[in-house]
Amino acid sequence: MKREQGFSLVELIVVIVLIGAIGGIFAMQLGPTIRGYIAVGKRAGLTDQADTALRRIVTDVRAAVPNSLRLGSAQCLDLMPTIGGGRYRTGPDVDVAGDAFLDYDTPANQFDVLTTFRTVPVAGDLVVIGNQNPEDVHDPVKKMAVVDRVEAPPAATLGAHRIVLQAPVQIPAGYEGGRFVVVPGGQQVVSYVCTTKPTRGTNGTGTGTLHRIVRARSPAPACDIPPGSPVLASKVERCEFVFSPNQGATQQSGFVQLKLTITDSGESVSLTLGAHVSNVP
């Protein structure tokens, strides 16, 4: 008579206990590694978010109108962005007629551009020449040179472009740089604002947000955050802007320092980034 093969209840219990013990050992050995892998991935994401936000600010700072950066508070910075610029004709061309230039004596509503544009200005953009302090460009009471159109000069030797303004403009007294910058008409002022006093919540996540806000010109920096403002970074635990307007013996540049800490579920990343700010119009 053939006997059936199988296992007893005792054998089954022994196997279950052994498998459980082996599984526990593996969990003890691999658990920290897996948790570390997950934490590294989370920190990498936080680092990328903080780095992207700070570099976006630095890009605008470096391309801003000289002497246009202001601090409303340690969590509020604004500036006047640019989309380009170049050199304008500062005197008449003795060889070719039909030139257009700017000087100190006579206001003019057009001028030849001696350099090429990466982004050609359009109607409504602003032209800034020789700005010396933030109040000159941010005050809405003071009139700005507004582009009417950009066309080709009568002769190629006169320049690459000719800018026609909506009203005559005159060079600021004492300015000899021969340079101008162009501010987009639809983005005259950009503010970077963090929510007031961000901190770490009870769940270990930052409670603040960093916003990039487009505004109109105003005499003082605006630090309010309108509903629906674009978010540059979230889960912010700390946000601080430090600006020294005059660095060095020549005072040709300032320096802005940006500090940002982003925290998510106990994981935290802090970055500090600095940039020189041109004071030379």
TrEMBL record:
The keyword Transmembrane is assigned to this record: yes
InterPro entries membership: N_methyl_site (IPR012902)
Entry keywords, A to Z: Membrane, Transmembrane, Transmembrane helix
Transmembrane portions of the chain: 7-28
NCBIfam families assigned: IV_pilin_GFxxxE
Protein name (Swiss-Prot/TrEMBL): Type II secretion system protein
Native source species: Telluria aromaticivorans
